[in-house]
Design brief:
Blueprint lengths: L4 E6 L2 E7 L2 H12 L3 E4 L5 E6 L2 E6 L2 E2 L4 H8 L1 H10 L7 E5 L4 H10 L4 E5 L9 E4 L2 H12 L8 E6 L4 E8 L3 E8 L2 E3 L6 H9 L4 E2 L7 E2 L5 H9 L13 E3 L11 E4 L6 H13 L5 E8 L11 E7 L5 H4 L9 H9 L1 H5 L2
Parallel strand pairs: 14-15
Antiparallel strand pairs: 1-2, 3-4, 4-5, 5-6, 7-10, 8-9, 8-10, 11-12, 11-18, 12-17, 13-16, 18-19
Helix pairs in contact: 1-10, 2-3
Amino acid sequence: MPKLVYTYFSPKGLMVSKNLSNSSRLVIVEAEKHGVKWKIIPGTQIVTLTYKGIERSYYHQLPSSTTAIAKYACNNKKITSNLLQQAGITVPRGFRIRRESDGDFLDTVFEYLKKPLVVKPSNGSWGDEVSVNITTKKKYLEAIELAFSNSNKKHAGVIIEEMFAGNEYRILLSREKVIGILNRIPANVVGDGESSIKRLIATRNKEDIRGTKGSDKSHLKICIDKSLHDYLTEQGLNISTVPKKGKQIFVRKVSNVSQGGEAIDCTDIAHPSVIKIALKAIRTIPGLSFAGIDFMTKDISKKQTKNSYVIIEINDTPGFDIHDYPYKGKNRHAAREFLYLIFPELKQNQ
């Protein structure tokens, strides 16, 4: 199926806006397989599906069954954290600050929390403007300024949290079942003893699974930017460094696939306690029918304890093409599961 686009109305008529996300496109592919008719409503980013005369819709990866309350809760990471904490689910200790927060409050937060810290926009996505491993006051204040640059809204907030030491996973699920679990690994290269980091990145970017934002690929290419240069400098490296053969070099701190990371399916090795915690978490958010949970743990194959894991955040519009096309591992048919969530009767007919 070719790329699909949203449109908008202008004085010149209906104009092309931007491409549907790859996940949304995959739902349409699946809909056609099941005999479900679809249309993108002109001037909107709403996709309407019709099956046996019944119409239901979704927006990006947000099904119409998810309520406004759920979106309100998920759009503010601190509200999500509060709901999870009150349900007995482990979350990082942290605080939300506002633009008007004074220096004394910022100092108090910095001194109160155990280092290292994570600083991120309260309503951010794609891993943009997220700073990790913050240990000094100078880096802390710089990270806050960066996080606020994510939004020009007057009441935009920034989350300051204690950083958890463990592996990061994305759990995709509905209120009834876990669909897939991925280990997200930060963008990296592996030395061959001859190539520079710059050349190794170029080779990584040629992988068929990688594309640019808005493409039909589940993984994005590694972008060489200031953040990448800065992280290499922290490691005593630069873009011209030639790593030893077999040496893995991480070029990003964050693990987001949108930043060039890799998604490795590990659904089959997750301990049942992980499934139990994830289902409890999604059911804690009123009206949330479909979600992606950012989950960190010291060992996903072992029974989870209060101190062995944390839930970082819950995304109400998760990209799920990485579950259908992981960097390594099984296809979990997430687009099909999303379609079944909208039309449960389709599953009953299989």
